[in-house]
Amino acid sequence: MIAHEIPDIRLRVDTDRFGPVLFEIGVDPERLRLTMQRVEDAHARFVHSPLAQVANKLEREVIASSIYGTNTIEGGILTEDETRAAMDLDPAQVQEIEQRRVLNIKAAYGRARQAALDPAWALSIDFITTIHGLITHDLPHPDNRPGLIRNNPKGRITHVGSPQHGGRYKPPQYERDIWRLLEGLLAWHQQLAEAGVHPLVRAPLVHYYYELIHPFWDGNGRVGRVIEATLLQAAGYEYAPFALTRYYLDNIDAYFTLFNSCRKAAEKHQPHPNTAFVLFHQEGMRLTINALHDRVNRLVSILLFQSRTRELLDSKAINARQYTIVSQLLTQGRPAPLGELRHTPWYASLYLKLNDKTRSRDLKKLRELELLVLDQEDQLWPGCVQVRNPRAL
User: Fold this and answer.
1) Coil, strand or helix at 160
2) How far apart are alpha carbons 369 and 55 in whole angstroms?
3) Given the DSSP bridges, would you call strands 167-169 and 160-162 parallel, antiparallel or unpaired?
4) In this structure, is the dihedral angle defined by the CA atoms of residues 194, 200, 205 and 207, taken in order, positive or negative?
5) Residue 67 parent element (H or E)
6) Of 10, 14, 132, 195, which is most buried by a Cβ count within 10 Å?
7) In angstroms, rounded to a whole number, what is the distance separating the alpha carbons of residues 150 and 173?
8) Where is this region: Disordered (predicted)?
């Protein structure tokens, strides 16, 4: 359903202690129309790009980046490289809590992606508690209760948010209220789906209201982002739903602030109170899809470059030393300062019994064939990279 046809579907849920909660779409269709069209256009270009050639590499990159993003939002301290390394650990090898957090999110992603591929899947409380259980498995949080809904004892108050991001909010504290609100949210979402409300509207709204309910003691942010991503992937969006967490991380202040500003707008009965959050999400989808498209193009160009380099080796247009140099630069993923390159063990071993003239001749030939590019700072780049300031031969 396109933006100007969004129906006004609302559901009021009465609770015992928290008071009434109104689930509403609350968006201005005209303000969404252009952004939604841009997302759809970006997605159409992306799915028609040569994804099949690089799907495995792209998927691994997306998962690593997404785990890093969602974990860092919640206080994780691993770098992206450390996150990538932790993903490959056997659970029995885990020695640090940060590594456990990574493997937990990876397991939750696996379950979510499996669910999204099932045409019969529908968002349920069982799915939500399962994802929470996977995300919080074996983590030493004082209130860690994987898969169990929060029930605050008397005198124990849960607050969400901070003064720096629009204020603090007191979500429902009573377990029965939380259950009612989750059931109401799922019933309301089902009404939206049956009415054909676009997933670019439905998914962020479920994410938004889920976070306001805040049903668990810990892990709510990670679970909410997985729910949103699963809904989007089930609707046919590839890679971007999980990659979106990096956009949230890069715009973390706006992300946190919007939960409060939209909530306050609804409390004041302002028109279309949820528009800003949905627009923020859709802009993130557009930027994420475009970035993925660019990455696919770069990966494909690297594959073509590798193929050309191999053909030149097979035809003896370049020698094994030259092939090794190009391959090593591709593998390290960054330019090599010429002075530094000459002192690396692998490079020095290539010319152990050869003179400087041979070394210079090899590099000159690689530059002539445009397999290597030397820039103005004396850094060597693989020829598949566009260098802004190449040095002439």
Assistant:
1) strand
2) 29
3) antiparallel
4) positive
5) helix 51-73
6) 132
7) 7
8) 150-169
Q: What pTM was computed for the model? A: 0.91
| Residue pair 207/228 in contact by the 8 Å Cβ criterion | yes
pLDDT at 393: 75
One-letter amino acid at 172 equals P
Tracing tokens 């650990």 back to the chain, one arrives at 89
Using DSSP's 3-state secondary structure scheme, residue 217 falls into: coil
Task: Give the 3-state secondary structure of residue 12.
Answer: strand
Instruction: For the chain, report the end-to-end CA distance as a whole number of angstroms.
Output: 57
Residue 126: per-residue pLDDT: 97
How far is 338 from 185, CA to CA, in rounded Å?
A: 59
Residue 90 DSSP symbol:
-
DSSP 8-state secondary structure symbol assigned to residue 89: S
Q: Using CA atoms, how far apart are residues 283 and 26, in angstroms rounded to an integer?
A: 18
Contact 215, 102 (CB under 8 A): no
| Tokens, residue 314 | 């097979």
Structure tokens at 35: 């952004």
Going from the N-terminus, what domains does the chain have, and what CATH number goes with each?
Answer: 3-295 (1.10.3290.10), 320-393 (1.10.10)
Tokens 């779409």 sit at which residue? 25
Cα separation of 72 and 158, whole Å?
Answer: 22
In this structure, what token pair is assigned to residue 200? 């670019």
Q: In the chain, which stretches have pLDDT less than 50?
A: none
CB atoms within 10 A of CB 181: 23
Q: How far apart are CA 105 and CA 96, in angstroms?
A: 15
Q: Which alpha helices (DSSP H) does 74-219 contain, by range?
A: 80-87, 97-116, 125-136, 175-194, 199-213
Paired tokens of 56? 């495995």
Tell how far CA 300 is from the center of its chain: 21
Q: How many angstroms separate the CA atoms of 128 and 135, rounded?
A: 11
Cα 131 from Cα 313, distance rounded (Å): 50
Sheet holding 372-374, edge to edge: 336-337, 379-382, 372-374
Bridge-based pairing state of the strands 372-374 and 379-382: antiparallel
Q: Within 13 Å of residue 326, how many CA atoms lie on the same side as its CB?
A: 30
Taking the C-alpha atoms of residue 238 and residue 233, their distance in angstroms, rounded to an integer, is 6
Q: Is 374 helix (H, G, I), strand (E, B) or coil?
A: strand
Compute the distance between CA of residue 290 and CA of residue 45 in angstroms, rounded to an integer.
Answer: 9
